[in-house]
Amino acid sequence: MDSSFPPATDPASSQPPLASEATTATDSFAPRTDLSHLSRHADAIRQELGKVIVGQQALAELLLVALLADGHVLLEGVPGVAKTLTAKLLARTLSVPFSRLQFTPDLMPSDVLGTSVFRPQQGEFEFRPGPIFASVVLIDEINRAPAKTQSALFEVMEERQITQDGTRYAMPAPFVVLATQNPVEQEGTYRLPEAQLDRFLFKLNVGYPTVEEEIAILQGHHAGFGGTPLDAVRAVVSAEDLQRLREQVRRQHVEPKLLEYIARLVGQTRAHKGLYLGASPRASLALLNGAKALAALRGRDFVTPEDIQYLAPMVLRHRIQLTPEREMEGGTPDDVVKQILQQIEVPR
């Protein structure tokens, strides 16, 4: 095998005990709508990823959730843990245009969005689209570009369009940004603006592989003299297929009391004494859409409280800011999210 995702720490480490117990029970209910089409496509993507990846079912599931929920993903991890490979392989399973951007300190907004070129023969300017005009856009080391370039992403990530010289240019559908960043290295990096972080559906922490998984990686490379080539991963889902699956996800049933539960969870981040900045209503929408997609992937046409609890850390960790006192105590955003989940009463 060529490489491996390291184990994602999100699902196991940041969830209350209630989530893992109740999810098994609720997954056994027969859905009222036919989710077999969605399951087949999801299984096909997992199978293609499995040609190169060792383990990492949880991370693959979260990426599929983001795709179905029409959201962008920020992958954070130390160098060498296959963040870029993750995005590249996922893009290869989709029959849609793909582009890759390497963010650097000297990158300009026109290098991302495109530029207008004057045509003397026609006596007018012609717009040349930049690499952002693709369905799946991989941005490597997104925190290496300065604020001027980061601001160029605000409109396109939220509205799926750019405005150049007073003209609106729409992005192709679907449109997903997969960005990576290194949490350790500080030299030559810039902090991402809060407004930009808020536009990411999930922030996924990519950790190291287990010993067993790393042994499997070594065995695959040794036996295959370099492992399975990336060309072995083929496209199994078209843009039309993805659009139909997203429409099915949007129709997922959500009880009114769960909408209130989401609002209370997110609202508590704005009143928590350990937080300097709480989550915006965009976080509530992200939690709702993500829970719908997760339920569909797990074979249900209705959302449960456990779906919301499971996704809360990934949705909220990059949208909240700790107070200086809480940071000095060694607290983390995930700790605060876990505390809030324990404080809010779970609807039944």
TrEMBL record:
Residues of the AAA+ ATPase domain: 69-210
Domain of life where this protein originates: Bacteria
Disordered: annotated span: 1-24
Xref: CDD domains: AAA (cd00009)
InterPro entries per UniProt: AAA+_ATPase, ATPase_AAA-3, CbbQ/NirQ/NorQ/GpvN, ChlI/MoxR_AAA_lid, P-loop_NTPase
Bias kind Polar residues: ranges: 11-24
Annotated Gene3D superfamilies: Magnesium chelatase subunit I, C-Terminal domain (1.10.8.80), P-loop containing nucleotide triphosphate hydrolases (3.40.50.300)
Name under which the protein is recorded: MoxR family ATPase
Species of provenance: Hymenobacter endophyticus
